[in-house]
């Protein structure tokens, strides 16, 4: 059995995997990256996810990365990571047990791996019910992962899953990008242990107001501190929260460009010593694009300084 997840509200970065130029995992850089996130005030770490180049990692590499995340965190923030991967049902189930044994606060299941794309909602519910029965007391999460196909969970179905699982379902990375659907999911899961973390930046503030527990998306690899500030201030300082959200909307297209290579280069310029090598197909940034990204970094730094100055006054 793994320990209950800390329902930490705030930012859960989707942890990147630093690689050396030869394509092997750079574990010293990985440890420094994890420390960087924690120093920026994140609420938790979502390791071994799509941004980690999940499907390009071997089973042993996934476990090594998750083990390091738990070790570096040392209980300072909760850690979740994906399981239920493999070529057979037996392999998928074993990956859940292997990940849980490392001390994960929850093992996150990519919903698109539970059933084929053509399967209906009742088949998904049945697969989830079976998984609960097969995994004893392991705490689980759900990830609306876009690959290999993008499956969203309707609010009513999610509510049934959350009520069925009780305290065993604690984490949802939501990728619907739709405030109305998010509101429906939150209503359907009211009174359960499930906490929703929005992956969509544009709707982040609105989802927080609706009751989402925080943000877990790609932008946390560019300005996790500012996102953590939004999650802290949205109730008590709505004007500041609105300015932060507008800032995020302005720079979002730069964040999405050539991701995750762009994020690795950006973090290197922020002091995390990591190469921009990716196993997923992603072209290198051109000289012009590198200049644009440097301008983005400077803009973010200036905005962060201005926000801190406003807070101090």
From TrEMBL:
What SUPFAM superfamilies does the entry give? Aldolase (SSF51569)
Specify the superkingdom: Bacteria
Entry keyword set? Lyase
GO MF term list = 4-hydroxy-tetrahydrodipicolinate synthase activity
Q: Where are the transmembrane segments?
A: none
Q: Which residues form the active site?
A: 143 (proton donor/acceptor), 173 (schiff-base intermediate with substrate)
Q: What does the similarity note say?
A: Belongs to the DapA family.
The protein depicted here goes by the name Dihydrodipicolinate synthase family protein
Q: Which organism is it from?
A: Victivallis lenta
Question: Taxonomic classification, please?
Answer: Bacteria, Pseudomonadati, Lentisphaerota, Lentisphaeria, Victivallales
């Amino acid at each position: 059995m793994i320990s209950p997840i800390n329902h930490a509200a705030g930012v859960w970065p989707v942890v990147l995997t630093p690689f050396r130029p030869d394509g092997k995992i750079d574990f010293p850089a990985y440890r420094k990256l994890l420390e960087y996130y924690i120093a920026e005030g994140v609420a938790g770490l979502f390791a071994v996810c799509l941004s980690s180049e999940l499907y390009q990692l071997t089973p042993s590499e996934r476990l090594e990365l998750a083990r390091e995340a738990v070790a570096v965190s040392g209980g300072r923030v909760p850690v979740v990571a994906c399981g239920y991967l493999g070529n057979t049902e037996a392999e998928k189930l074993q990956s859940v047990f292997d990940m849980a044994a490392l001390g994960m606060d929850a093992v996150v299941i990519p919903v698109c791996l539970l059933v084929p794309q053509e399967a209906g909602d009742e088949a998904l519910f049945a697969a989830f019910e079976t998984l609960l029965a097969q995994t004893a007391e392991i705490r689980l999460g759900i990830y609306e992962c876009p690959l290999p196909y993008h499956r969203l969970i309707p609010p009513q179905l999610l509510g049934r899953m959350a009520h069925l699982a009780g305290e065993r379902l604690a984490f949802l990375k939501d990728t619907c990008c739709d405030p109305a659907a998010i509101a429906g999911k939150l209503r359907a899961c009211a009174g359960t242990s499930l906490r929703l973390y929005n992956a969509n930046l544009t709707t982040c503030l609105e989802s927080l107001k609706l009751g989402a527990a925080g943000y877990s998306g790609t932008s946390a690899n560019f300005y996790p501190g500012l996102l953590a500030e939004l999650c802290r201030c949205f109730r008590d300082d709505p004007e500041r929260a609105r300015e932060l959200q507008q800032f995020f909307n302005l720079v979002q297209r730069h964040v999405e460009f050539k991701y995750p290579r762009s994020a690795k280069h950006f973090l290197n310029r922020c002091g995390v010593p990591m190469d921009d090598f990716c196993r997923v197909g992603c072209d290198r940034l051109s000289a012009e694009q590198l200049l644009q990204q440097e301008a983005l970094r400077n803009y973010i730094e200036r905005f962060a300084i201005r926000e801190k100055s406003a807070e101090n006054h």
